[in-house]
């Protein structure tokens, strides 16, 4: 089992990566080829699907970043953690989510299942 704290840190870094090529390479390195990403707004599978969801969020929330809220709670090959979408580090999040990541034997993410706790006002 890999260090799930590091896995979560790398996962959030992908959401914050502005360079599409670097983001794509990081997704290919961190996720298994058929990994699903499922949340209330998306249900995709594989590197391209995950990349499209992240690119869409980056386009929608330009200039904002994702940061870990609290600590990663993990056991076996499963991590759960809360994240915030912020205008600057440490600021009040405009969105808050809760994700569960499941990893494969080699430490790569084989699935992410997300929930939204707070969404931006329309």
From TrEMBL:
Pfam families: SnoaL_2. This is Nuclear transport factor 2 family protein. Residues 8-110 form the SnoaL-like domain. It comes from the Bacteria. It comes from Streptomyces alfalfae. The lineage of its organism: Bacteria, Bacillati, Actinomycetota, Actinomycetes, Kitasatosporales.
């Amino acid at each position: 089992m890999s260090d799930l704290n590091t896995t979560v840190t790398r996962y959030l870094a992908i959401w914050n990566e502005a360079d599409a090529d670097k983001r794509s390479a990081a997704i290919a390195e961190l996720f298994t080829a058929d990994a699903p990403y499922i949340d209330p707004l998306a249900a995709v599978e594989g590197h391209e699907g995950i990349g499209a969801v992240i690119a869409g969020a980056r386009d929608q929330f330009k200039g904002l970043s994702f940061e870990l809220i609290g600590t990663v709670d993990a056991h076996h090959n499963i991590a759960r953690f809360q994240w915030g979408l912020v205008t600057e580090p440490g600021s009040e999040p405009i969105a808050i989510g809760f994700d569960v990541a499941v990893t494969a034997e080699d430490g790569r993410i084989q699935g992410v299942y997300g929930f939204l706790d707070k969404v931006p006002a329309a």
